[in-house]
Specification:
445 residues; alpha+beta; 2-methylcitrate dehydratase PrpD; 60s Ribosomal Protein L30, Chain: A; globular
């Protein structure tokens, strides 16, 4: 079999009994985080805008925009929820994908799953397979794909979303192959749009197109059978001939599942992951040697060149740009002692105290560092120099921390008892007869 056929066969022939219990439990963790970040996006300008836009489009009411409760067609619900999920850049990450695995897959899957009345077990299985597809293709073509300027969360996420939706609506092997072919022609997203409203739209588009690909395939729509490996296929065009190895995908499917290794990391800061090692380093310095913002003479932060190339807004003018500004993130940590959703508003970015710190903070690249490490040097006006070298940020590492993030993101939109009910349902998702029961707990009354 050729690579795309191997992938389709794997999706169609993998069942819940084939999934390790550890992977099922880890997928619940990721789904909890995914729901949290969808709700985090609702109050944002991006969130309000996409919900309003989708409402104007109409659509057969088969699937739900979370929080708001508006029902529309499955593709449009996926479009809204996917955009919400990436609105504050708080969604989880995976190293093989080189981006955010859960947002496109889960947003598409909930919409398609609600449409067909999928069970909790079917959602869990389809989620794991969707992540496996996008991540293992990423293993085959990254970092070339990423460094060319593509946004893998959306390009690869479209294929992952199509795989997940194909599984949940019960496509056969041939239909799954067609769904991947359709999705391949709908994959696009440019890193040039980082720091704008269009970056989260990338994820909405990936989720929508994943649903569309599966639904079209279910109706007999055809596509090329070699969408990954073909002469004009995905890998040649999105990476370059000779610059990828699909054996990394075909020989590693489910060995182990990517939800387990390298795993899915939940973010503790709502900004670009390339800032996180530096933020962890600053937090450690502040904890061990507290100082006031006005004491700062200068801050030097060294990161790997791969990080600098993403952090493209040293002098941000908006909350969205600030998420891709190492200078701003460090200034916010110094000024406020934390970096949360509330640090990334346009008003906070314009704050005089934070802006006065920006000229004193310099980010530079150091190729001798490991790709996810950071080196921090803070010079204070009393002559002291404080240093810290941070490794890759571990993100959220305990269930209690994740639950706290979940409650924080849903607070103010859903009442406490509803939040608790939804949390319980995620913990026991394999018992759900119909995912619609869960969706009802995620609608503001």
């Amino acid at each position: 079999m050729k690579p795309t056929e191997i992938l389709a066969d794997f999706i169609a022939q993998t069942y819940i009994e084939d999934i390790p219990e550890e992977a099922i439990q880890r997928s619940k963790w990721a789904i909890l985080d995914g729901i949290a970040v969808i709700f985090a996006g609702i109050p944002q300008e991006v969130g309000k805008g996409i919900i309003s836009f989708i409402k104007d489009l109409g659509g057969k009411p088969t699937s739900t925009i979370l929080g708001d409760g508006h029902r529309t067609s499955a593709p449009w619900a996926a479009y809204a929820n996917g955009t919400l999920a990436h609105a504050v850049d708080y969604d989880d990450v995976n190293l093989h994908l080189g981006g955010h695995p859960t947002a496109p897959v889960l947003s598409a899957l909930l919409a398609a799953g609600e449409k067909v009345g999928a069970s909790g077990k079917e959602i869990l299985l389809s989620y794991i397979l969707g992540v496996e597809v996008e991540a293992k293709i990423g293993l085959a073509i990254n970092k070339v794909h990423y460094n060319l300027g593509w946004h893998p969360t959306a390009t690869l996420g479209t294929l992952g979303a199509a795989a997940a939706c194909g599984k949940v609506i019960k496509l056969n092997r041939e239909q799954t192959l067609m769904a991947l072919g359709i999705a391949g022609s709908q994959s696009s997203a440019l890193k040039q749009n980082f720091g704008t409203m269009t970056k989260p739209l990338h994820v909405g588009q990936a989720a929508k197109n994943g649903v569309l690909s599966a639904l079209l395939a279910s109706r007999g729509w055809t596509a090329d059978r070699e969408i990954l490996e073909g002469h004009f296929g995905f890998c040649n065009l999105f990476a370059g001939r000779g610059l990828y190895d699909l054996k990394d995908m075909t020989e590693n499917l489910g060995k182990p599942f990517d939800v387990l290794e390298p795993g899915i990391q939940s973010k503790k800061y709502p900004c670009c992951g390339s800032t996180h090692a530096s933020l962890d380093a600053m937090a450690k310095v502040l904890q061990g040697h507290p100082f006031r913002p006005e004491e700062v003479e200068s801050v030097e932060c060294e990161v790997h060149p791969e990080r600098i190339h993403v952090l493209i807004h040293p002098n941000p003018q908006s909350g969205l740009e600030a998420k891709f500004s190492l200078e701003y993130c460090l200034a916010a940590m110094i000024q406020d002692g934390k970096v949360s959703i509330r640090q990334f508003t346009d008003e906070r970015v314009a704050d005089r105290a934070i802006r006065s710190l920006l000229p004193r903070i310099k980010a530079s690249q150091q190729s001798t560092l490991n790709p996810w490490d950071a080196r921090l040097r803070i010079r204070l006006r009393d002559g002291r120099t404080l240093e810290n070298e941070g490794g890759r940020s571990p993100g959220i590492t305990t269930w209690d921390e994740l639950v706290a993030k979940y409650r924080d993101c849903l607070c103010g939109i859903l009442p406490a008892e509803q939040i608790q009910q939804s949390l319980q349902m995620i913990q026991e998702m394999e018992k759900l007869k119909n995912i619609s029961e869960f969706i009802k707990t995620l609608i503001a009354s």
